[in-house]
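We include the entry.

. . .
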Amino acid sequence: MTYKFEKLEVWKLAIKFNALAYNIAEKLPDHERFNLNSQLRRASTSIALNIAEGSTGQTNPEQLRFLSFAIRSHIEVVACIRLIQERNYMDSNVELLNRFEDLGSELFAKLNAFKRAIS
């Protein structure tokens, strides 16, 4: 059985974004395990979960609410990345961060476009 959210391009993109977030989290220092590591994983996971939860059996206003949660989680991920950059934790992984930034920009645009299409 395939669920509605599994067909959504924005959900598929959120899954890729989440995988990259986990990649970044694994490279953080051990002392960030319960702070930035955990927060980055949870916030990036929340994006995909909110897209999925809002997609099935919801009214348009309800789906918009869940998309708003996904967008807020995305902003939280961006804030985590900025803290990681500020602390120079990923200086040796600039290429990974660049891929993450590019994918994140695309995801943010698609989340907003999806939200506009529903409203």
The chain has a mean pLDDT of 96. The helical segments are 9-26, 33-55, 60-86, 94-118. Residues 84 and 90 are 7 Å apart (CA to CA).
